[in-house]
């Protein structure tokens, strides 16, 4: 078991530099008094400095880690290298010998009981001959900035009413998935989902009731999705579902599940038959090629949706094949 050292161990050897001891003492005091969380590990990965700011950030006291290689416990639940450890590891490979590293990532911070998004910089400390003596890592807690960035990204890509992806996100995702399907030669399916007789619902229950209806349908549709599928509010009472690597048969199965789930919400709509809210769904599948465009997939699914509406609503429609739902 490693025994913590009660004092800081010199980084520079006084026999190598006439004024090394004095310089080292100054450097030590400077690092200890920095308001920036800082720690230093030697070439064996043992902690030789853990300043007060690092204690405040991590909740781990210097006496708990000095002389040990347990500094990872301040940041993670399971053992994994810190950025400083990676610098030492890289120094053993000549190609990376002079590398400093920087990164930003989420850390669990077990002692303080919350996740933090930390920006870290790690740099080697060398003697005059270039020999690696230690690595210093500085940390910045940028959790608030990261959360603000996430919130802004969500505002840009999420629909404010339903929380689903918005039209912009749908367009970007469809293009990206089209390119991926093209590279991997996989099918790409699309569902266009429209709420039946929504105008009558709004007339009967008002816009607030209409908003709640859309929110409940959005949740119902999202609950039928795989992790890599995307549900978006396409506009008004219309939703779009991107199904990567899904055949037309598979898309039809998903569509029917969505249709049934919405009907089973039993949202009353006296202006329709049956007297509950239902959806019509158009499905389409493409095997992307250099001669086709994502807009063609949208147009095909739209046409199928139009057929489903024309045939009486509350059903799904496929290109050249119609699969009626419950009438």
Automatic annotation (TrEMBL):
Residues 186-321 form the GGDEF domain. Residues 30-98 form the PAS domain. GO terms for biological process: cell adhesion involved in single-species biofilm formation; negative regulation of bacterial-type flagellum-dependent cell motility; regulation of DNA-templated transcription. Its EC number is 2.7.7.65. GO terms for molecular function: diguanylate cyclase activity. GO terms for cellular component: plasma membrane. InterPro entries: Diguanylate_Cyclase, GGDEF_dom, Nucleotide_cyclase, PAS, PAS-assoc_C, PAS-like_dom_sf, PAS_fold, Rev_trsase/Diguanyl_cyclase. Residues 95-154 form the PAC domain. It catalyses: 2 GTP = 3',3'-c-di-GMP + 2 diphosphate. This is diguanylate cyclase.
């Amino acid at each position: 078991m490693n025994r913590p050292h009660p004092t800081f161990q010199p980084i520079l050897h006084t026999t190598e530099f006439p004024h090394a001891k004095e310089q080292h003492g100054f450097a030590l005091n400077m690092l200890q008094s920095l308001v920036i969380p800082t720690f230093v590990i030697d070439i064996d990965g043992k902690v030789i400095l853990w300043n007060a700011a690092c204690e405040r950030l991590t909740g781990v006291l210097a006496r708990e880690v000095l002389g040990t290689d347990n500094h990872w416990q301040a940041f993670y639940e399971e053992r994994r290298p810190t950025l400083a450890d990676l610098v030492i590891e890289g120094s053993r490979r000549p190609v990376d010998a002079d590398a400093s590293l920087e990164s930003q990532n989420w850390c669990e911070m077990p002692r303080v009981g919350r996740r933090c998004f930390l920006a870290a910089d790690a740099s080697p400390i060398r003697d005059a001959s270039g020999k690696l003596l230690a690595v210093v890592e500085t940390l910045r807690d940028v959790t608030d900035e990261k959360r603000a960035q996430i919130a802004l990204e969500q505002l840009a890509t999420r629909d404010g009413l339903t929380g689903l992806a918005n039209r912009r996100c749908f367009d970007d995702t469809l293009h990206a998935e089209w390119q991926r399907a093209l590279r991997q030669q996989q099918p790409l399916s699309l569902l266009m989902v429209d709420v039946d007789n929504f105008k009558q619902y709004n007339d009967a229950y008002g816009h607030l009731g209409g908003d709640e209806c859309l929110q409940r349908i959005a949740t119902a549709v999202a609950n039928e999705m795989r992790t890599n599928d995307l549900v978006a509010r396409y506009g008004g009472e219309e939703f779009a579902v991107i199904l990567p690597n899904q055949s037309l048969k598979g898309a039809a199965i998903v569509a029917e599940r969505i249709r049934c789930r919405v009907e089973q919400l039993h949202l009353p709509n006296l202006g329709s038959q049956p007297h509950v809210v239902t959806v019509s769904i158009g499905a389409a599948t493409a095997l992307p090629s250099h001669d086709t465009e994502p807009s063609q997939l949208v147009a095909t699914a739209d046409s199928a949706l139009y057929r489903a509406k024309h045939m009486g609503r509350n059903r799904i429609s496929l290109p050249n094949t119609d699969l009626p739902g419950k009438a």
